Amino acid sequence: MSLQNSNTQAQRPSHPNPACGSIIDAQGREIEITEDMIRKACEDLEKSRVELAKKA
Fold it and tell me: What NCBIfam families does the record tag this protein with (predicted)?
């Protein structure tokens, strides 16, 4: 049994701050979910909850 050398390198994420997972957009492209995306979603959710609480 022999080991073969491979020129394949680990693929680097397209975004410097990847989280885990991906989503598929309307055009069928795979988009990595990043930490920044998660932070923004959490901030937007928190903001909407605060606005709802003010209305109540």
Answer: PA1571_fam
* 36-52: pLDDT as tens digits: 999 999 999 999 998 88
Amino acid at 11: Q
| Number of domains making up the chain | 1
Examine residue 49 and state whether it is found in any structural domain, yes or no. yes
Q: Give bridge partners of residue 32 from the DSSP assignment.
A: 22
pTM for the full predicted model: 0.54
**Residue 48 belongs to what domain range?**
18-55
Percent helix, strand, coil in the chain, to 5, is: 40, 20, 40
Q: Is residue 28 part of a domain?
A: yes
Locus of tokens 């693929």: 11
Exposed, middle or buried: residue 42 (CB in 10 Å: 0-12, 13-18, 19+)? exposed
